[in-house]
Amino acid sequence: MAGVLNFKSTPPISMPIRRHLKTKTSSSNRVSVIRSSTEISDTTSTSSTSIKAEPKSGVSSITPPPNFKPPEPKRFAVRPDKVADVITASLNLLFRFGTGVFVSGYSVSFVPKNEFPSGQYGLEVSGYIVKESSKLGPRPEKPIEIYEFEGCPFCRKVREIVAVLDLDVLFYPCPRNGPTFRPKVGQMGGKQMFPYMVDPNTGVAMYESDDIIKYLVQKYGDGSVPLSLSLGLLTTLTAGFAMIGRMGKGSIYTKAKMPAQPLEVWAYEASPFSKLVREVLVELELPHILHSCARGSPKRQELFERVGHFQAPYLEDPNTGVKMFESAEIVEYLRATYAL
């Protein structure tokens, strides 16, 4: 199922935000946390068993489904049995005013098709290629690490700024009853409150979605929080309304195998097709590196060069060697491969 179109086609660092401390790395607990008490998405109690920050390896053999073959990517295709899912996942575009559709500093220019280089990604419109660009801030050397879950409005706000800033993020899903990363957050920060961010580039760790947003724009943007993410309660309410159509999806743990390595996903928050895949990644508690690729992202060109095609979502699973497009089939692959 195509989430985007098929076409022919890293810094100065500002001072840490007040109340957030830079800490030393250690093998058992890489960061200390500045705790806050105003934003609690979920405080369900769970086991206090010691959990490592990285996913466990060797838990069980992980192989793709028998006779599995990745589907061919399809342009503008929605599988008939997934139409309702795509519609409900699209409500975020209405309630969040398109936040996360475009990368910071987005701009376009129109180039005649016959003058556009064949090896570049672009959108063809009436004989012209829409060339998209952006103005990005400093790039982190290592992916930001975020512990969160799909059905949380506070977490959504942070995922939106990730799309705007075009950041790569290592997501550790924390669905309710999740046995691995939800307890880990409690160990690192003293409470199971989400989202929780760790920046391995600076040693900073923090709770509170608004604080995380301010930190990220100061470190990796131009210092300005987008209007749609700076409206306080209204921002939080609309982020909650955006998930009405997918109520409960991506929030509750489904027993699954733990991969030895994080999966890699090219996707972005505003895409309804990407959202359907993210829901399952969270429910199965599968850690994944998200290469955010909203409109204007240079990672669209990178993926185009990598596989000769751009479309989101795109999955690469280093645990099985599977590489594939199409959201409906990615969801089926994840459940067949990892769910127990």
Tell me what the structure shows.
By secondary structure, the chain is an alpha+beta fold. Helices cover 26% and strands 15% of the residues. An 8-stranded mixed beta sheet has the order 7-6-4-5-9-8-10-11, sandwiched between helices. A 3-stranded antiparallel beta sheet has the order 1-3-2, with no helix packed on it. The protein is globular and about 60 Å long.
Question: What does the secondary structure layout of this molecule look like, with pairings?
Answer:
Blueprint: H1 83-89, H2 91-95, E1 107-112, E2 123-125, E3 128-133, E4 144-148, H3 153-165, E5 168-173, H4 181-189, E6 196-199, E7 204-206, H5 209-220, H6 233-241, E8 263-267, H7 272-283, E9 288-292, H8 299-307, E10 314-317, E11 322-325, H9 327-338
Parallel strand pairs: 4-5, 8-9
Antiparallel strand pairs: 1-3, 2-3, 4-6, 5-9, 6-7, 8-10, 10-11
Helix pairs in contact: 1-7, 3-5, 3-6, 7-9
Pfam families: GST_N_3 (PF13417)
Domain GST N-terminal: 261-340
Protein name: GST N-terminal domain-containing protein
Count of strand segments: 11
Rounded Rg: 19 Å
Question: In which range does the helix fraction lie?
Answer: 25-40%
Cross-sheet strand order for the largest sheet? 7-6-4-5-9-8-10-11
Distance between the termini: 25 Å
Helix vs. strand class: alpha+beta
Question: Uncertain segments of ≥5 residues (pLDDT<50)?
Answer: 1-59
What fraction strand?
Answer: 15-25%
Q: Number of helix segments?
A: 9
Which outline best applies?
globular
Look at the structure and give the mean pLDDT: 85
The helix/strand order is HHEEEEHEHEEHHEHEHEEH
Q: Sheet with the most strands?
A: 8 strands, mixed
